[in-house]
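[Q] Does anyone have a clean structure-token version of this?
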Amino acid sequence: MQTKNLCDIDVVYSTENSNAVNKSKNSNDSYQGKSIVDEKVAKEKEKLENEKLQEFGQVTLDKNRRDHKLHLLTIIGEIEGHECLPQQTKTTKYEHILPQLAVLEDSEDIEGVLILVNTIGGAVESGLAIAEMIASLSKPTVSLILGDSHSIGVPLAVATDYSFIVPTGTVIIHPVRMSGTVIGSRQTYDYFKIMQDRIVGFIADHSNAKKERLEMLMFNTTMLSKDLGTILVGGQAVEEGIVDAIGGIHDAIEKLYDMIEEKQGSKA
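[A] Here you go.
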């Protein structure tokens, strides 16, 4: 029978203990290394989100109790067309918005889109292009008018599946205007009429307002001192059927959650 002396036992114990310590140390180092990497990734993600919010007014909303992932898109200032506006002017650039809308449509993660509107209007062609893109999204969409939704801003607000306006928000409907040199010919006025029909037709198709009533509001001569048109404040826009409801950010987000869950239920 082979026996081990006390020295041999001490050596074996010492070796096993040392291996256990080293294994624990390596595990801690690995954990700490992973933790540092995760922290760097989180900080980089936060930085990108902040940059996206600062540059484009966009952010992903995913820290909610109903566990839905929303994308927030803002349409503010003036809708910039094919020419760049002065640097000091707040603008929404359609070359930024259109690709982002395509990304949202293609995303499997984003479940709904919330659009905040505060615009004085701008380029008709660019505004209608954005509005058509919003209207063609397959995901639930909700808009909220904060402040103003003037001129081409009206189609942008009604392009969503459901629209809200705060009590002090305003909607202005007026005829198409052009700056610069305009040729005073019948063709020019016919072109203006075509543009106006496009705007009125889009609003009528995506709201509860009637085309004839919209044209009456557009050519109203009693309200604006230096222009034709009509200002609608808060509930007036709802009464005219242009906007769906009075509400704020809570109402808009809750409505979007409901629409997402209704869509998911219909697929089940």
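[Q] Thanks! Anything notable?
[A] The radius of gyration is 29 Å.
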